[in-house]
Amino acid sequence: MCFSAAATCTVRKTDYAFEVTNQTVNIKFSVLQDLQNLGAQNVCLMTDKNLSRLAPVKAVLDSLSKTGVRYKVYDNVRVEPTDTSFKEAILFAKNGSFDVFVAVGGGSVIDTCKAANLYASHPDADFLDFVNAPIGKGKPITRALKPLIAVPTTAGTGSETTGVAIFDFEPLKAKTGIASRAIRPTLGIVDPVHTLSMPERVAANSGFDVLCHALESYTALPYNQRTPCPHDPIARPAYQGSNPISDVWSRHALHMVAKYMKRAVRDPEDLEARSSMHLASVFAGIGFGNAGVHLCHGMSYPISGNVKTHSAKGYSVEHPLVPHGLSVVLTSPAVFSFTAPMCPERHLEAAEILGADMRQVKRQDAGAVLADTLRHFLFDLQVEDGLGAVGYSKDDIPALVKGTIPQERVTRLCPREHTEDDLSQLFEASMKIY
Amino acid sequence: MCFSAAATCTVRKTDYAFEVTNQTVNIKFSVLQDLQNLGAQNVCLMTDKNLSRLAPVKAVLDSLSKTGVRYKVYDNVRVEPTDTSFKEAILFAKNGSFDVFVAVGGGSVIDTCKAANLYASHPDADFLDFVNAPIGKGKPITRALKPLIAVPTTAGTGSETTGVAIFDFEPLKAKTGIASRAIRPTLGIVDPVHTLSMPERVAANSGFDVLCHALESYTALPYNQRTPCPHDPIARPAYQGSNPISDVWSRHALHMVAKYMKRAVRDPEDLEARSSMHLASVFAGIGFGNAGVHLCHGMSYPISGNVKTHSAKGYSVEHPLVPHGLSVVLTSPAVFSFTAPMCPERHLEAAEILGADMRQVKRQDAGAVLADTLRHFLFDLQVEDGLGAVGYSKDDIPALVKGTIPQERVTRLCPREHTEDDLSQLFEASMKIY
User: Fold this and answer.
1) What is the ipTM of this complex?
2) Which of A290, B42, B206, B269 is 20 to 30 Å from A90 by CA-CA measure?
3) What is the pLDDT of residue B11?
4) Where is the Alcohol dehydrogenase iron-type/glycerol dehydrogenase GldA domain (chains A, B) (predicted)?
5) So where are chain B's domains?
6) Which of residues 209-228 of A touch B (CB under 8 A)?
7) For residue A287, which residues of chain B lie inside 8 Å, CB to CB?
8) Read out DSSP for A392-423?
């Protein structure tokens, strides 16, 4: 699967499937037309300080100037956003009375823009109203939001396809989020050219997010085993468990990761590989946005939230940071060893897709085989050797477990029931990987 | 992939991907809730005479009675509809001032309901306004339609996922249609239980439609080679050529057809096989609804439209009929022999998925290998031996070619350019298959 440099996939919310243009358009053209089609009069462009100087944002600005449409730029998005940084963006959106939002960036930017759009459309709501329970009130979203065009510049979060916005809730030092189909972007513009500027470690960490989206959604609790069963389809949660539709996307994304990720990380000029990882990110996003994720993600939130001094190579930020994809993948060997007994066939299939030699492998080896395959994959990609290497020790485990407990929204999609002791052991087993 | 009898997939237009409920709901429950969520006050239920006596329609009627919502039933849909039968349904819809439409049936019912909904929402439009050019004017649809819930009872057309409504245009004795995202159903309720009542030949012919949707969309002209390139995304046609997203669905549907179709045809009680074919129909629908089909479909329209005396086994109709799926599949060996040189890898991959022995097969054999594989597949499923067996002779070829010419909407997605002579030869090669 090879794209020309200028091929752009647009992802429309109102269709069953994505539309792929046959236009060798660049971002200027696409955003311009789409803004006009949406009848935009007053646009909010959100991005971060770093991106605001780079080509994708410049292209959108150029496009906006040409249309003569009014716009304001908010470039103060925090990488790995917090409730404080969300609120600042929300205030900007409330004051602007915008009729269309455009988010240019990675998951942090797109998620922040989703939240800004949501609360600007519900000016009387309290911030915790729509935040996932038990941290927030998890209220349903009833009013219509403004259109949001998402232009992803990393190949990881799949945020352009999902109804989820994640942030660090500082009072509890834990990540949580807002999850509702209502905040899903109206349109995603997926242009591989934008990912060519990703530094090597950003490509690696965002790729790990794709890998775990695919693996977790493919092994998530099956949709027909999830409880409680809502009495009305409208009350269904965003994450519904693995199902015949999400399976197609999760498995396909995993194949693409297996084929392209190492090439994409090592060679930023490898357009085929970077394009494919960008699409893999979209595809895994449709999979997990429908099925959900489970323990790697649930446990990752306190890993990023409790960061002490770890500074992330390749990221232009001034604060300590365990990048999201890294915090997710570090527990993956332990997690899939733990979940394998519940659906060994899927774990074996995943290991095979990732290149494991399956001769003489038995059903009961599923966990060990997938874990070893992941260890090799991470080692080849020069990943830090476990939680120990990003600043954690055994003493931190109680805090990490405590930060995982509120992540029920995702952890209850784990195919295997688990206690706090199980979580402790999973964190402990992840202190060192190799 | 196995579903319990009562598992129901609901397909929502407003999401990226389908939602699959974890509810062991039956159709009554689902339609009831969804009608309430849509605020229905006055429902139009469309079906055909035969189905109106069967369980799926009874379940919906029972559900409607319980809600106390007003409704009217139109059960006069014609199997393989015509402009006349469309117009009759449109008149019913115009007179009823309905706020929600429910279509329970195969492609004929769902397509008729799409047309009725469309023209009832555009009461001043002339019938040909929205019909595909060159037969109609192909005008864009600008006004919003009423919600349409589609409940497919066959596993073939995928009409619940597409923005296409096909009918016989009697003045030209050719099939044509209306194609616009605007007429796509709001919600599809895909319950395998409904397909258990399909007679063996209906299961076979609708399965062939799925097979050809998958094969044609997978081999359609690639999206980045389609011309002309529209200047605005809103002007893009419904059928965009094969692309990385449709490919996922087309290939996956083909795998399911290969695995389940023969079982589903032979044993109506094989719930796993019939469920899987029902889902394969949905999946192929997303694939071709996005990529398009080409020659098998383009050539099928005059094959059904010019029918003389052939009576279709298993169909409760009083008029001569070459069922849609049969009219599509009869030319498939000839068509894929013809298209193979343009993308031999895809033809070889399709043959392999359908079970061909690929040892010692060369690239230049792609067409012959796929054609032979299809012949074996059709023979095993006891398909009539070519166009000759459904009442055509060489003398009919000029009329069949003439009826194919107006099918530009699909035939221009053929990966290989073709003349009228080419079409003649394809029809001739399809007179006898084995």
Assistant:
1) 0.86
2) A290
3) 53
4) 33-192
5) 9-194, 198-429
6) 223-226
7) 17
8) --GGGHHHHHHHHGGGHHHHTT-SS---HHHH
